[in-house]
Design goal:
By secondary structure, this protein is α/β, with parallel strands linked by helices. The protein has 14 helices and twelve strands. It folds into three domains: 1-45 and 178-347, CofD-like domains (Rossmann fold), CATH 3.40.50; 49-129, no CATH class; 140-174, no CATH class. The chain has helices at residues 22-32, 50-59, 65-74, 79-86, 99-110, 114-124, 157-164, 182-189, 201-209, 214-220, 243-253, 271-278, 289-294, 317-331; strands at residues 16-20, 39-43, 130-133, 140-145, 150-152, 168-174, 193-196, 224-228, 261-265, 298-302, 332-337, 340-345. A hairpin with a 2-residue loop joins strand 11 and strand 12 (340-345). Helix 1 (22-32) packs parallel to helix 3 and helix 5 (99-110) crosses helix 6 (114-124). The radius of gyration is 19 Å and the shape is globular.
Length: 347
Amino acid sequence: MAIQRDRFPSDGGPSVVAIGGGTGLSTMLRGLKHYSKNITAVVTMADDGGGSGRLREDLGMPPPGDLRNCILALANVEPIMGQLLDYRFQEGELSGQSFGNLFLAALDGISPSFEIAVSRMNQILAVTGEVIPVTAGDVNLVAEFENGTSVMGESKISAFKKQQHCRISRVRLEPDTPEPLERAIEAIHNADVILMGPGSLYTSVIPNLLVPGIADAVANSKALRFYIANIMTQEGETEGYTLSEHLSALMKHGRIGMVDVCLANVTAIPRHIQARYQTENAMPLVVDGNQVRKMGVELVVGSLSDEKRKDHARHDPDKLAQAIFSVVDEHCVRTWTEKGIRYIREY
């Protein structure tokens, strides 16, 4: 059942749900679309900073930035269109604002709902699969710290944490019971493969699991469920965390046993890049395999970093996708069911 890049089975490949947000999710999606046409990206809606935050405040719409990045990652458009949607204005009142954000804001203005606006952007840009918000509700992220303090606002968490000099105890949504998109629950229910991460643990991945019904849907799924580990720890969120501590935090906010496989990078990060991260008190993630396995999670490691980059440590989209689907090949059997072809996990 080996799946070759750009060559799909007749059914389009496994049904993949990728849960997260930020740069990590969009990077992974760029690789995934070469292996399956059946991709659903479920994207966090807790962003309140930058251009997204300004549109959220000015227009009262959900934040468009993470959705825009994921839609562009899965879009099938001419390069000039991609450049246009990614363009940021340099001057005036629109300085720093992305044209793609404004495009989605305009669609929201002419659509009956934000959910329909996002669906229309998917269609216009010929997205491989679909990108959907985890909720259309107006939500804010609240972080609580081990010293008893708390702060509201995704964009404020990093700076506040550095002031407190202690770890995040938990994050929560305000209000705490936003309505999940029915399509998100449905996609998770029908998934053959579920991917959580990579991306900021507390501000991109976990917020999705706080929306009622999402964590339960993942926990109850029969899909092969991955946690894709970050390459580095993150300033203002996970300084000093090992891989097993990332998993512990994920399951604490979600459900115990909701991860089957953890995929982690073991390629050495160049010293000059490490030196840059050290100024932010960040370092390559320590892969404490024995602790991960004690949690009942299979650990798969490989060379997943983009070695062409000279400034940041990032996943290579193609390497990451190839590693994911290699694990899927090993653990799943392509089977005909009454609902069509499914990739059934072997126990």
